[in-house]
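EI: anyone free to look at a 80-residue chain?
SC: sure, send it
EI:
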Amino acid sequence: MVKRGENLKFICKFINENPGSRTKEIREALCIARGIDPKVNRGQYTLYFSYLQTGRNYSHLWANIKGQHFIKIQGMALLG
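SC: here you go
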């Protein structure tokens, strides 16, 4: 089991190392890192990139500009 917050750290690290990545690339990398086949579980981890009415919004960690993701200062803080 993955500790709380580890997926966010992974996403921030991936975006930092691969600026301009698309959601699909980030999500597939996260699935593979967690031992999940991204082709079988197509919707896995999409909530990190959706603006939900529940209040979960991670736009303070990364920016989405024309479909490409770039890390923000708050996201860099998670890199350690």
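EI: The chain has a mean pLDDT of 89.
SC: 👍
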